[in-house]
Amino acid sequence: MRVNNSSARRAGAKRRTRFATVLSVTSLVDILSILLIFLLMSFAPEGAVIHAAQDLELPESTSPEKVEGSDLVLAVTERGVSVGEHMIAGLEDWKGQLWIPELGAAIGPVSEDDPAAASRRVLVQGDKTIPFDLLYAVLFTAHQVGYQKLALAAYEKAPDQIGGVQ
Amino acid sequence: MRPGGKQGRATPVSDIDMVPMMNLFTVLVPVLLLAAVFANVTVLELQLPPKGSGEEGAERFVEKEALNLMVVISAEGITVGGSGGFLPSVLKTEGHYDPNELIALLQIVRNEFPEEAEVTVASEPTIPYENVMAVMDICRERGFNQIALVGLHMQPVLPGEGA
What's the ipTM? Predict the structure, then answer.
């Protein structure tokens, strides 16, 4: 160890005396310009952006519709229903019923005198592994408390070669 | 930089000063990285049977002299049917459905009824959401845009006095 250190130091000292090294930034600039172009291309200024909730993977869809800023976004996993980071209805007691009382109390009821609230779209972000009855219970509950427009969120997928869009 | 720049021409290689550019890039890259959207989220709109369902909803469904196209997803397979009858089912092979068979069936319906846009997708409780979404997506791609979702064999517990 000691021998190595001293020899390295000696070599370093020799170099230091001879050259004033200039940091070559050309390669760094190359990488950064490519990265910059890539990021500029993936930059999407239009449409609202929703952040996927944790522990949740959406299914895929080729639907061309976009998220609206006014959407009420519900994230559904096996553990419960949440809005943003807040869990609004746990599913420990849920046994497959259509009506989820905690969820109904948290998001509703929507008064019919308030057209803005009733016409608000409920966007359900469901994990792709949840059973259909849970998804349907969430949709049913939202519908029952007065929300008329319902929608499901999915990751965008390019249309299939076989399927195609007619 | 030096006064008397003309004399400086004697050194043939001169580097461009990249430092300001680097400064700009190092700021821009994190900003764009934070703003970048790598997975775009799309939205699929759907309807549920009308509120209060039961008789009212059923009447509305039957009254119409329409196709009433229905796609039923069960543990065994997918069945496409309408007012006129049922098409042969798409059965599970090796644990999963073949989407091409469903596409072919819907194409038959599409050829018969070019104007039809409504479809009812019904599913059993245990079917994973991913499969239901895949079926709805196939329907949408074939031009059946107005999707109504119906649950089969659900436990009907209606809201109590709270709602």
Answer: 0.72
